[in-house]
Design brief:
The protein has one domain (about 5-65, about 80-155): Nucleoside Triphosphate Pyrophosphohydrolase (Alpha-Beta Complex). Helices cover about 25% and strands about 25% of the residues. The protein is built from 6 helices and 8 strands, in the order ααββββαβαβββαα. The two termini are about 20 Å apart.
Length: about 190
Amino acid sequence: MGMRDLSAGLIGLRDIELLYREFFKDQSGLGIFQEQISNGENLWDRNNWNGHLTASAIVLNDGFNQCLVMHHRKLGIELVPGGHCDPFEHPAESAKRELAEETGLQDALIHHWHSVRKCPIDIDTHPIPSNLIKQEPPHFHHDFRYIFVVGPDCELTLNQSEGSWLGWKEVSVLDELYPRVYERIRRYL
């Protein structure tokens, strides 16, 4: 899957599997995700309590020394912008859409590393605890993470329903929030 494919819009389960396999060349990290693919589960269905797709936007300034972080209103923690993938939406497109919805950034560019490597900078399967208010049982998020770059004149507009704070921090904060992402940024970019 090249970056040309991102503009094509809707993709299928096989495309998601290919992205995942490209990321995990040794196949040892497939686990729960591979089992869901083998079972033909709809990974875009937010009611799939085995696990479903999410995407995150790791936004760097053009000097690669700062990253955009927000304080998530519901979770009460600092995160990068991101959220659930819409049905059959490519995760890179989901990350870009969520970035625009949460921060107002419309012109962020996906880093060219993704077109060379043809995969996210990181894929993380992590548990989500039950939510009694939403009546959701515990489940997994398969989070596809992408690097975006913005220039110095970008304007941020926090979506107040999503976060209580939005701003730039030293890129080293990623070592605390997303250690694999930070290590890969240092290695590849």
